[in-house]
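Form P-L/3: holo structure prediction, ligand iron/sulfur cluster.
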Amino acid sequence: MSKISERLLVQAHLAAKQPKPLSIAQENELRLAIKAELKAQDAVLLAHYYTDPVIQALAEETGGCVADSLEMARFGNQHSASTVVVAGVRFMGETAKILNPEKRVLMPTLDATCSLDIGCAASEFTAFCDQHPERTVVVYANTSAAVKARADWVVTSGCALEIVEHLMDNGEPILWAPDRHLGRYIQKQTGADMLLWEGSCIVHEEFKSSQLFDLKALYPEAAILVHPESPESVIALADMVGSTSQMIKAAQTLPNSAFIVATDKGIFYKMQQLCPDKVFIEAPTAGNGAACRSCAHCPWMAMNTLERTLSCLQHGTDEVFVDSSLIPRAVKPLKRMLDFTQAARLKHLGNA
Ligand code: SF4
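OUTPUT (holo model):
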């Protein structure tokens, strides 16, 4: 997708789909109604770290989970609820459905998509893979079910490095899609032979290294935490690079009292909750005007509102369906990732 059409798409979402502010009374009423519906419908709410804090708090209060996409997939897979409500973006709902085809998967809105998913159409991606049959196909979780169905492995930013190292040890050349910044970062870290698709995240791509450098001068004691979907020049200034969960862990474990954070600002809810005495500062983007496409908040994650969460539960709308012919092929690379990370986790516990 060209930069111009991508920008128009984002602006259309920003103009038409963003939530209206609610009064405290309205918010409380909606929260109570959602809690009642979750219970009545044997449903569990999974919320991504980038969603509105009010949605994250509700997931926690109702026994659901607030997590990155890997943990959301794992949690939804293991939970006994017959309905899973995924507050995040569409590929997360699809992942939940692929892993649990027998469950009903709802989303506050199916319109919540992702620039990485949009920028990696299955037909073009399949043609790209067909041109390089000798390569092991590794795709980021931020892709459609059809793209996953063409992959050998699915990865998230939390496990991509280890999985690529594993493939490199096996001598496998890699075809990587869709995020070029994350791909380049992993390539640099591992030295793996990787052919990269040229996708990007509109949120992380907006972080600016020169302004970050200036901000660091104002807060010399602050550690810089950067998500690897950010540009190389921003990563170069980082004290720590990692997935959302790894960034939260770093906020908890590093001795610094302040952090400059280069990822979606929805993550501040969890960071502040776990580290109430620490200060978190947004990494700079191009600014709040027309020059900035995201201003450190994903326009699609912002579509997950209380009203839409209640509506999908009450009316059964925005249910996620995945073409049944894709599920057997898409589930294989997903399960491979879950098995690999589970084995790595057990090994780590064994070594601890
Ligand atoms: S933050 Fe970026 S990668 Fe995440 S859902 Fe939004 S556009 Fe996609």
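COMMENT: DSSP finds 16 helices and twelve strands in the chain.
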